[in-house]
Amino acid sequence: MDLVLKEALDPVVEARLKAAGDDPKAQEAALLSLKVLDPAAGSGHFLLGAARRLGRRLAQIRTGEEEPSPEAYREAVRDVVRSCLYAVDKNPMAVELCKVALWMESHVPSKPLSFLDNRVKCGDSLVGVLDPKVLAEGVPKEAYKPKTGDEKEAAKAARKANEMALRGMADLFSQDLLTAEEENYAKVLEEFARLPEDTPEQVAAKAKLYETLREKGTLKRLLLASDLWTAAFFQPLRGAGPFITSDHVRTVLQGGRVAKELEELARDLSARHRFFHWWLEFPDVFQKGGFDVVLGNPPWEQLQFDDREFFANIRPDIANAPNKAKRDAMLEQLHKEDPTLWHAYLEARTEVSATQAFIHNSGRFPLTSFGRINLAPLFTELARSLLNTKGRAGLVVPTEIATGAFNQYFFADVVERGELAALYDFENREGIFPGVHRSYKFAVLALKPPGREPARLAFFLTRPEDLEDPTRVFSLAPEDFALLNPNTRTCPVFRTRQDAELTRAIYRRVPVLWREKPEENPWGARLLLMFMMNTDSYLFRTREELLNQGFRLVGNRFVRGEEVYLPLYEAKMFWHYDHRYAGFTNGSEEGTEELPLEAKQDPAHLPLSRYWVAKEEVEERLVKRDRNGEIVWEWEREWNFGWRDIARSTDERTFIATFYPRVGAGDTFLQMFPKTPSPEVLALAGNLNSLVFDYVTRQKIGGTHLKFHVVKQLPVLPPSAYRPEDLRFIVPRVLELAYTAWDLAPLAQDVWEEADEPLREAILAWRQAAPTHPDSPPDWAEGPYPFPPFVWDEERRARIRAELDAYYARLYGLSRKGLRYIMDPKDLTERELADLLSPYEEVEDPLDEKAYQKRAAESRFPGETFRVLKEKEIRRYGEYRTRRLVLEAWERLSRDKMLPEPFAGGVL
């Protein structure tokens, strides 16, 4: 909470006091004119913090003392509570608790409890009219989209009636009238707020006057018009009507009456859903442009109806049904067995559906109402819209507000307008939030008035004190977000300032894989998700099913006459350059087992999958047709290329890609189909599997998935980066790593056929020096091949990968010091870390193992890159083998003048 107040409240207070000058009276007036809101206040925790902070400052101004007396402090807090603080919450009990908390904090023995009904209110902050101009514009047509429980014909009739009403809306009603009425009501409330509360009688009189104001004809009319407009989104669209339309809103605004049943419907829906019309609840605030500060920790859950949650206590048998199909069947039976519970279930579903419809269609949340609705982003967009032009917001929200795909439009808009003040990401490992899982990530998000000041950011914090470490905090300007995530403008996740500097330097040199605007896709790549594991499951067959149907296993495919079922590969079956990393034991559904070394050394051994899918279904997904059925894209090669979607920045490795045969792939194994010649695709594979690329990927992944929008924005060397000598170095090495089994002979054949003569000579020379299998393909192998697969040799593969890692690090512009950093930041001395982009090294011999271990043990640098890989290798080999092999490769290539010139295709 203190961090939120420091980022959001303190700067506003300082600016207001500075503008007031040195006069204590002016400073007091400036402080008491502040308007501070929590739109999801709960029991008032954040407002209490604001009250204490503002109260102390006000008492200091009044007394001129650094430590005011308790009496002066409490008097000041009382004035702050009754003048500055506003709260809204949907839960009536929370509202009462908030009032009690504020009363207890601000109670002065000689005075009665303050009147708070005009400032602490019950309602749904997300549902209702925020800006009265929507009343003048009428109910939008989107309000009549059918919801759960609605009838399509009724919705169509209601929409047509509304269209008729909208045609005359602009001519018959003026926004100016609304503005004038709002101004008059705001003035009345301003005068009301200034009434004294020094005696019980004054408080009682104030309460009675407020009730009278709320019952005045003008306000009741505006409230009813706002209720009607909002209720149009919630009303059941069934039967013949009548239905609420723009005509009814206009009628009430003009002083007329609507049908009693529609008025009662609007008021009933308003009470049930707790509509909250901001412009009428706090008109004095909005007449001055909005709130100065918005604070809070809004709810983080999704707005979604869950059958299992509804039935958990009343019908656990339905809640615990083994799958959706079984649950649906039980619900159908419930309709007959228990109509009362069935209708209660339908009503609950309808209420959630109606709220979802309002969020999606009302226009109040143009930047956060995408996909599955999450409440935290909605409250964040609301907070921004409630601020005045000089206001600031501070909220505790899930980190996905800045990194998630569904929030990209909101975050991009905040960044582009220069409104991001700070984003501090925390892991809950130390239980900052006791009721939240220890792995959950949340952030303190601070918004400011538009400006070009760089935002302050920090990630992977575990406690607020981590912000005192200057290596943990870094700055990014709006143009940096455009550089690092040009398509989404979402936030990268750097552990340290050094990570930010190094990643920024890489992006200035290397372009992203696929820029969307303007379109730049140098690899001509098409990205594809082949089969959904849930919705496509009806296409899948198990080994037992196929054997029972008379299919026979050939390799790892099932064949019956002309019918072929191909294996459905899943992400856990792969590793770098290894499409035989793991398989399902005997094709069962029990889980995967890693293939033993002897299996990998057999080029005819193929892993079995959990499921198989018809060949024609796979072929259909490797073709794209237009509306006329004409083919506009087709993948014609007999091999595929993909990467693991499930990934974390804290795993042993993050980006894991491989070649594999032309078979099916599940939804956690995403596909990339480049247009370029095969030798260049091997260079692309070497790039994506390199340590330097993995390092950058770790700076860009905030969750557990590597979806298309993330991968498109990773810095990938384009085809133009590779000179012929680069391909002669890379292609033979990647080919040996990938081509270890006969089922990838088509890949080797394509590379051979598309290689020029110098590259062929390099491949032949490499093959002659490498162990290969005898020229004896299995019966199931089809098509030509240039030579048998390479032998799987663990030690040799480790050395080859180390050479590729060193080579790509140089192509990306890294110095040896930069390479040391990405493998283990604790390898660098403080002087080396001070300027990471400089090639200067204080360490003379990085391969001195004892000196390295001493540096790493003594380092207090908070960053980490491949810690899990390092720890695993130390357990297995007694050393961080990857680091040694890569640095040895760098030294060897440097000595033999084989290190490439760095690619420089970006803006350096």
Task: Please describe what this structure looks like.
- Among the domains are: 1-127 and 278-300; 307-361, no CATH class; 399-485, no CATH class.
- The strands form 5 sheets. A 9-stranded mixed β-sheet has the order 3-2-1-4-5-7-6-8-9, with helices on both faces.
- It is α/β, with parallel strands linked by helices and 908 residues long.
- Helix 5 links the parallel strand 2 and strand 3 (120-122).
- Residues 84-307 form the Type II methyltransferase M.TaqI-like domain.
- This is site-specific DNA-methyltransferase (adenine-specific).
- It is an enzyme of class 2 (transferase).
- It comes from Thermus thermophilus.
Topology summary:
Layout: H1 2-20, H2 24-32, E1 36-38, H3 45-63, H4 70-84, E2 85-89, H5 92-106, E3 120-122, H6 133-137, H7 152-167, H8 169-172, H9 175-193, H10 200-214, H11 217-234, H12 246-253, H13 260-273, H14 278-281, H15 283-286, E4 291-296, H16 307-311, H17 316-319, H18 324-337, H19 339-361, H20 375-386, E5 387-398, H21 400-403, H22 408-416, E6 420-427, E7 441-447, E8 455-461, E9 474-476, H23 478-484, H24 497-509, E10 526-528, H25 543-548, E11 552-554, E12 557-560, E13 563-569, E14 582-584, E15 592-594, H26 597-600, E16 611-614, H27 615-621, E17 623-625, E18 631-634, E19 639-644, E20 657-661, E21 664-665, E22 669-673, H28 678-688, H29 691-700, H30 708-711, H31 724-738, H32 745-754, H33 757-769, H34 794-811, H35 816-823, H36 830-834, H37 849-858, H38 867-877, H39 881-895
Parallel strand pairs: 1-2, 1-4, 2-3, 4-5, 6-8, 13-21
Antiparallel strand pairs: 5-7, 6-7, 8-9, 10-22, 11-12, 12-13, 13-16, 14-15, 17-18, 19-20, 19-22
Helix pairs in contact: 1-2, 1-3, 2-3, 3-4, 3-5, 4-5, 11-12, 11-13, 18-19, 28-31, 31-33, 31-34, 34-39, 35-39
